[in-house]
Amino acid sequence: MPDAFLKEQEKLSPRQIIERETAFHTMALQRLSVKFLFVAYGGLLFSTMAVIFLQGFRFWGFNLDQKFLDWLGGAAIGEIAGLAALVYGALFKGSKSDQT
Q1: pLDDT of 1-30, one tens digit each?
Q2: CA within 20 to 30 Å of 40's CA: 13, 31, 48, 58, which one?
């Protein structure tokens, strides 16, 4: 650890040290969660676009009903938007007691 960090830590009370470490841990978990969700949502979007692409060019005899493709595109967009809003709310909005 750098000397400046150790000197700063010596000035803090045990409660302040715990609060700071808790904040660092929370931020690390948020960062990990967001990275995972971006990868998961990216995979979902890629697979949906792949199905639409295969349907558009009819590769390997790929043929789906147009109503199903409309539903698939709408479901993918709705799912991503809904899940992203829920995750954002859960990860980044603190409780009302934290804000006061």
Answers
A1: 555 665 666 788 889 889 989 999 988 988
A2: 58
Q: 77 pLDDT band (50/70/90 cuts)?
A: confident
The distance of Cα 13 from the centroid of its chain, to the nearest Å, equals 34
Per-residue burial over 49-78, b = 16 or more CB atoms within 10 Å of its CB, e = otherwise:
eebeeebeeeeeeeeeeeeeeeebeeebee
How far apart CA 77 and CA 56 sit, in angstroms, is 19
**Is residue 31 assigned to a domain?**
yes
Determine, yes or no, domain membership for 100: no
The domain of 77 spans 3-93
Nearest alpha-carbon partner for 77 in 99, 49, 39: 49
DSSP 74: H
Domain count, the chain: 1
Cα angle value 70/87/48 (rounded, 5°): 25
